[in-house]
Automatic annotation (TrEMBL):
Pathway: Lipid metabolism; fatty acid metabolism. This is acetyl-CoA C-acyltransferase. It comes from Aspergillus wentii DTO 134E9. GO terms for cellular component: peroxisome. It catalyses: an acyl-CoA + acetyl-CoA = a 3-oxoacyl-CoA + CoA. Belongs to the thiolase-like superfamily. Thiolase family. The lineage of its organism: Eukaryota, Fungi, Dikarya, Ascomycota, Pezizomycotina. Pfam families: Thiolase_C (PF02803), Thiolase_N (PF00108).
Length: 421
């Protein structure tokens, strides 16, 4: 077994000399200390207050997902040391996370925590578990993103003290998200037509992906109950597909939808070109490559790093345009070396801006549609994007994906993943 000095020397040699490997080659290489993903799955995403998961509380959603993860992973649950749950809205979320871990059949030795950085919470959970593995704190962990926007509606920002509010950016932190979308549209001259064109493509890509069966590789069903709002009848159901995708959507049909925020100019954001409020969850099992090989676990992908960046709260939607270059510089890649970009479509305004600003190939961006079409369960999205990106890399037989999202209060986050299908 090599010493730490020998390993450092080996890494240094990769970066210099005539035989130096390219950054892409280094990223694709396989080393015992890599943090790898051995399972990545998600529940269906369903419309809040209307869809198949509308009566499924966050604890029941988590128990269903974690039970499936335990069963599908074929991993001894006694080996799981920590479960980090990305969640934004649930009250008492730390209690909910710990209780769900135990109720899903994991032993008392499996700890739990909650990660909350708004829309990036799911990716933050992945990063938290990966960092613990890298640091040697744990060997095996599970990252989860979950949100029940039906049973835990978004109440908005809390009241803040006068001292905090005296800061010039503090009032921007309290802006409704819709206003930040209009700020982006106004500041960067993004027309209503461009909003609707972007959104229509999202729906069309999602419709194609669902009809072609591409999503079957991502989704695990949820057995739950649903209540008929008219009769009050409660029945058991199995929810196994996304229900927010509107078939036959066109720019013309979206052009007929009224402005959602007429009080803010240019009033280009609508219920048709913004992300849907949604229920759903996703789970990702992580460990070192050496541990996965020792346990005979299938290696699905490699986590290659994540980063966060702050920006002006009033235009928080442009976060990916800052976070993506930052993570690419850290791993030494150019945008052209990335095969898939999963960028959260919080609003069409931010989608249009980020794709244009970064000069991305539109065919590489959200090939299965995004949050406008399938929804944005706040705490779930960061983990859901990883599941979707890895599934799409397998389908295309490609290797490298970047996931990214804007984050409420003015931030952006991005991560890099390599598929090893």
């Amino acid at each position: 077994m090599s010493t730490p000095q020998q390993r450092l020397s080996s890494i240094a040699n990769q970066f210099s000399g005539p035989g130096a490997a390219s950054a892409r080659d280094r990223l694709l290489s396989k080393n015992p200390d890599d943090v790898v993903i051995t399972l990545a799955v998600r529940t269906p995403l369903t419309k809040a207050r209307k869809g198949g998961l509308k009566d499924t509380t966050i604890d029941n959603l988590l128990v269903s997902l974690l039970t499936t993860v335990r069963e599908k992973s074929n991993l001894d649950p006694n080996l799981v040391e920590d479960v980090c749950v990305g969640n934004v809205l649930a009250p008492g979320s730390a209690y909910v996370a710990r209780s769900a871990v135990l109720a899903a059949g994991f032993p008392a030795t499996a700890a739990a925590s909650v990660a909350n950085r708004f829309c990036s919470s799911g990716l933050l959970a992945v990063q938290n578990i990966a960092n613990q593995i890298i640091a040697g704190s744990i060997d095996v962990g599970i990252a989860v993103g979950a949100e029940s926007m039906s049973t835990n509606p978004d109440g908005g920002a809390p009241e803040m003290s006068d001292k905090i509010m005296s800061h010039p950016l503090a009032s921007q932190n309290k802006q409704p998200m819709g206003q930040t979308s209009e700020n982006v549209a106004g500041q960067f001259s993004i027309s209503r037509e461009r909003h609707d064109q972007f959104a229509a493509k999202s729906f069309q890509k999602a419709e194609h992906a669902q009809k072609a069966g591409w999503l079957n590789d991502e989704i695990v069903p949820v057995q739950t109950i649903i209540k008929d709002p008219k009769t009050g009848e409660v029945k058991e159901v199995v929810v196994d597909r996304d229900d927010g995708i509107r078939y036959g959507t066109t720019p013309e049909s979206l052009g007929k939808v009224r402005a959602a925020f007429p009080q803010w100019k240019p009033s280009a954001t609508t219920g048709g070109n913004a992300s849907q409020i949604t229920d759903g969850a996703a789970g990702i099992v992580l460990m070192k490559r050496s541990r996965a090989q020792e346990l005979g676990q299938p290696i699905v992908a490699k986590f290659c790093g994540a980063t966060v960046a702050g920006l002006e709260p009033r235009i928080m939607g442009i976060g990916p345009s800052i976070a993506i270059p930052k993570i690419l510089s850290k791993v030494g890649l150019t945008k052209d070396e990335i095969d898939i970009f999963e960028i959260n479509e919080a609003f069409a305004s931010m989608g249009v801006y980020c794709v244009s600003k970064l000069g991305l190939d539109e065919k590489k961006v959200n090939p299965r549609g995004g949050a406008i079409a399938i929804g944005h369960p706040l705490g779930c999205t960061g983990a859901r994007q990883v599941v979707t990106a890895l599934s799409e890399l397998r389908r295309q037989n490609k290797r490298i994906a970047v996931t990214s999202m804007c984050v409420g209060t003015g931030m952006g986050m991005a991560g890099v993943f390599v598929s090893e299908h």
